DNA sequence: CGGCCCTTAGTGGTCGGACCACTCTCGTCG
DNA sequence: CGACGAGAGTGGTCCGACCACTAAGGGCCG
């Protein structure tokens, strides 16, 4: 009698669990190449189609990466790889949930900025300063936005917590900024944003974590409050 | 000449984007049923196999849910649905990244606990108290862990930010607690944990947000420090 | 007449096989 | 010795068949 049969769920679901288990147990290392689809399918006793679905699911989760003609590879499994999906949340969120996301961002961003104030290197601080200057030197919203994102990204990186940085990155996803940021800036918040960015930069330069935390919190809170007000319509 | 062809990426990838776009643009509402696989495939001009892979990917992301024999449905798109994948991150993280995750948890958990102190209802506070008592009334690690999780889950729910609660939930995933919590408690941290939980409960009962924040931060920090020390080996 | 059961159409789940597109290696040729 | 080209191997796509399950409808029985 065959000893194989865990009969719960779809075969694809089982395949997903088997592969993640192999990775979790260290049987597969980050960056390592998996067996071929055909072999994996045979090994688990399922069809190639079902195995492909399993692999597609893991690809979507950022656990695995398929390279056409070459093979399937485990990603580096770093925060950035796995948390890319976080952007999907922001993309599909509307209404009150956008406020919740901003609340999370406020908490994490202010913490990251405080950490950065304590740890940032002069080189990176200069980089932050560059984005600040570039932001103030143009009127093109697209360019401003690009430097705005880079400004915060640089700070998050300086905080030294890649996981936190990856989450914050997800909270600035394309749709999110299109839906929130654009509306916010259209109401003439440029000047305010500039002041707040300057305050953050000042706190970083002064290596003052608490000032940095407060400045970042205020910065996000401004958007948060604007959005709250807008949702009341 | 056909006007269809965006020739970038795999057809499956395009299908994923098309479907998420339909949801994002409100063409598909949360909970609504999608067309059948066969029809979706025909509509996008791809094979059913490829469409199934797209749907499987979206299922993994918690965007969509397939019910055998019935159809494919958009999930409610609430934080819990979309952030279930967050557990995968915790599951596959090792070494230094576990510390980063705890750092994120400390930040969010302390904030959530502070919010809860201001907002918690008497009923829910009683519930929290129950889990605290249950935790202290047994020596079975499994039972303790279950009430420990419920304790924090109840608090997170009381904070009123479902997104935050969902992230915290992911940070307590099965593997995570097996890998970290177990080792921590084995070193006789029970007494300490009890004291910290009691302090959190006291702060909640006193409706003192700042005390609650500090107590929660201390609580997580204890685990964090233990793990840091352990990683030095 | 009302309620239960069974049929049945329709859905997602699985399978196998065929072929295409791409990558990488290795042996050949200049 | 180097460029390059053929071939084997890989993921990507498609097709068509069948299975497992759901839900709704119609007919039977009480």
From TrEMBL, chains A, B:
Entry-linked InterPro entries = GntR_C, TF_FadR/GntR_C, Tscrpt_reg_HTH_GntR, WH-like_DNA-bd_sf, WH_DNA-bd_sf
Q: Which PROSITE patterns does the record associate with it?
A: HTH_GNTR
Protein name in UniProt: FCD domain-containing protein
Please give the start and end residues of each transmembrane region.
Answer: none
Keywords for the protein's UniProt record, in alphabetical order: DNA-binding, Transcription, Transcription regulation
- Superkingdom, taxonomy of origin: Bacteria
Give any Pfam family that matches: GntR
Q: In what residue span(s) does the HTH gntR-type domain sit? A: 9-77
